[in-house]
Predict the 3D structure of the following.
Amino acid sequence: MLHDLMFRLRTLFRRPAAENELDDELRFHLERQIAKYVSSGMREEEATRRARLEFGGIDQVKDECREARGISFLETLVQDLRYGARTLLRAPAFTACAVLTLALGIGANTAIFSVVNSVLLNPLPYPNPQELLAARQNDSRPNLKDIQRQTSSFAASGGVNIEPMDFTGNGEPVRIHAAYVDAGLLQTLGVQPMLGRWISDDEDVKGGPGNVVVSYPFWRDFLGSDVHILGKGIRLSGNSYTVIGVMPSDFHLPKEPADVFVSLWVAYPEAAPFRGVHFMHTYWRLKPGVTLAQAQGDIAQVDRRLAEQFPDTEKARGTILIPLHDWLVGNIRPALLILFGAVGLVLLIACANFAMLLMARAVARQRELMIRASLGARNSRLIRQRLTESTLLSLVGGAVGLLVAKLGTMFLIALKPAALHHFHTIPMDARVFAFVFAISLLTGLLFGLLPAWSASRGDVAEALRENQRVTGIGRSRSFLRSFLITAEVALALILLAGAGLLIKGFLRLRSVNPGFNPANVMTMYLQLPATRYPEIPSQTNFRRDLLARINALPGVETAMISDIPLSGNFVDHRVVIDGRPTPAVGTEPEVQTLAVMGDYFRLMQIPIRAGRDFVATDREGQPLVAVVNQAFVSQYLPGQNPIGTRIDWTRTGERHKWMTIIGVAADVKQSGLNQPVDPAIYSLFSQSDEQWRRWMTLVIKSRSPIAELVEDVKKQVWSLDSQIPISDIQSIDDLTAVSVAQQRFNMLLLGIFAALALALAGVGIYGMMAYRVNQRTHEIGVYVALGAQRRDVLRLVMKEGVMLALLGIVLGLAGAIALTRVMVSLLFDVKPTDPPTLIGVALLLGAVALLACYIPARRALGIHPMAALRCE
């Protein structure tokens, strides 16, 4: 004891030394004392234990010396990091496997979090966005003006409607997106032009000047970034407009893109004064101190007055205000949150694999750890070193995960889901980097703690025995590994169940009969400018001449003009039926109306269920005719023959212009495959008195490849009018794909996560079984030496893994039944508890688990008894 006391005094008061010198000196004295006891005949284990007691623990002495010499905690941490890095570099296979596992989990989470951050968390790019509101439904400009005048809750309000316009600059005419705006729009959003000014109230009137404000991309791409553009003219849809402003580069409207901004009164005077034309998105900015409830009450009073004054158009309407951010993300929020939850399960599975890797690594290093313990290292010191290594691994995994996330966000943008159509890139800002750092740090600490604690426990004497293999894994360590495997399987099954339900729903959606045959059908969009085609006759002549020219092209089977299915392009009209009691004004039924020219029903292969199709003699100057769909008959003419029934649009104060129903067509999905079929009426362009219907979709059915016809069709259009742009050239198959794009996005993303979870779970089971086979080599050798058959060895090895997998599957089924209910809004014609899907994914996961157990078991069959016993 005197020797121990003298050593401590010398250590405390001598000149400071480096940490490694301190370690070497303490170890030298300890080993000398152990050698002294061993030379006297004492067993090595007892000598080590007595020397430890005499020195009072080498770590305690080291800590006292550190304190005396001023060695800080930070210096100790740096030394731990260096030691951990050297240790991990000496095991490249283990390090690469752990980093890759975490990179996949963290990278997938970061990619989805980047989307959530951009779409749901980032504030809107407008000043004081919390004051901005949007109306759920569109409104008309007269209503907007009345509400502006009769309310006191709003600092500003404005409206916008996006319509196509033709830009005829240099070269081929181009179709652009024009925002028909109210003068108060920009004040409401709180933005000012980068150059020039906005449209004033005095200019936003009937007969106002043709002024236009252009977007930054339009100014850059079409106007050559001309800083002197203000006051110069451009031609839009045949009219001359003067550029008075250029918007900032980072400005965009809340929901739809716009290239130019013009007054609604100037660009669309036919629609501006009509109260029943509800086509403007309206935005509102609250006055300071005014709540949403107060504003809603204020606007409700105006709605009631408008309903009393104008019952024909406003009786059944009401303005519902919601925060602008909620209005923008309302449809995508559930899907994003579900995907974020799903990718969180992937991370948990990756973390479980990470924890098992650390446990296997700890067992391999158990002798080293016990030697350190024999030299006086306390459990807290060993745990801290192991946590340092696990945290270092997780941080490296997080860094690699950032690269995975970047590739993931590029993949998400490439999928072009509807919710991300505004985003050309998804930025990784400070919030995303903080998320990666936090999740990496927590992963390293939380999932490294139990393996570190488990590794610090063990019998020192057993570990120090010469050439002694560690054959047991310990009760607590075995329970932890079993728990992790079971949790992996359960979480993987939940993800597989969600992906299976989405896949089944998507397949059912794609199998829905759209009501027409889209094979070999090409579409393209055109719009006639009001300056050159102001009246119905000129519009009809253009359409008729165009169809005649295209039908004469080689390879064209037939062509027609209409609003195409699945596009959502149609106009709603209120309708009255001759001979029926007239409903109260404003309560008449509202139906879809589609104007056609050409052989529409034959081209689209839509069956005529009753009556006849349109014929060549149905044209201007002849009795007005119409074809209705079966939904119209079922809802408004049930149990009677509709042929010969007369219908008309409601025209308050006007004499009816009755159309006679000549045919009943099969139902067609006009709004989308997942939407119900609404009542619809088909009428003829040539018999229409709606001169504002200047847009049209040209539809061509071809006997030859569609791509070969595009240039020929363009030439025919421009031979009639060289200033008309042609846009949205696509096949109806493409349109069908667009109509299910969001469902495909959800299915594909959750399917990828489920496949990743399945792979990680399979790797986890395989790793555990391979590890157990390696640990039980001696036991298996004895078992075979005693006469065990191949099936007995397989049963011995596979029993544990199969039982854990079955338990995980049972728990996963229970979790899937509970959690997939949140996916109801994403499913089509599939229940969240669909038995075939749940049974199918359970069998799939069971097969993967069985394979993961069988491969190591096959290796066990190759163990020779003598080799196993000799190894021991």
The longest strand covers residues 154-167.
